[in-house]
């Protein structure tokens, strides 16, 4: 999965999710970034938070949502 030559550094990324016809964009999602291939690895806890937040947004009925992602948001 992780290439042999790359260095993994802390960074962030933008995640776009399409869910039930809604488009959700999360900016500044914490990720580990490989400086060799540019691959981004998102922690499973962060992914869980993302999906949970996405479900809540979809339930509120919006079709397009762009927001900064904060891991600490309850
Ligand atoms: Zn790599």
Describe this structure in words.
It is a single chain. The chain is an alpha+beta fold and about 70 residues long. The protein has one domain (about 10-70): Ubiquitin-like (UB roll) (Roll). About 20% of the residues lie in helices and about 45% in strands. The N and C termini lie far apart (about 30 Å). Bound molecules: zinc ion (ZN). Zinc ion binds near residues 3, 6, 34, 36 and 37.
Work out the strand percent.
35-45%
Which structural category fits the helices and strands? alpha+beta
- What overall form do the CA principal axes indicate? elongated
State the share of residues found in helices, binned by percent: 10-25%
Averaging pLDDT over every residue, what do you get?
A: 90
| CATH domain class name | Alpha Beta
- The parts where pLDDT drops under 50 for at least 5 residues are none
**CATH architecture descriptor name:** Roll
Please describe the biggest sheet, giving its number of strands, its sense, and whether it closes into a barrel. 4 strands, mixed
Q: Based on DSSP secondary structure assignment, what is the total number of beta strands?
A: 4
CATH topology: Ubiquitin-like (UB roll)
Distance between the termini: 31 Å
Continuous helix count: 1
Count of structural domains: 1
Query: What is the H/E order?
Result: EEEHE
**Overall radius of gyration:** 14 Å
Q: Bound small molecules, which ones?
A: zinc ion
Topology:
Elements: E1 8-19, E2 22-34, E3 40-41, H1 44-59, E4 64-68
This protein binds zinc ion.
């Amino acid at each position: 999965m992780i290439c042999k030559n790359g260095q993994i550094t802390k960074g962030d990324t933008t995640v776009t999710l399409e869910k039930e016809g809604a488009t959700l964009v999360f900016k500044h999602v914490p990720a580990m970034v490989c400086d060799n291939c540019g691959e981004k690895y998102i922690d499973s806890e962060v992914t869980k938070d993302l999906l949970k937040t996405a479900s809540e947004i979809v339930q509120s009925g919006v079709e397009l949502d762009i927001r900064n992602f904060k891991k600490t948001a309850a």
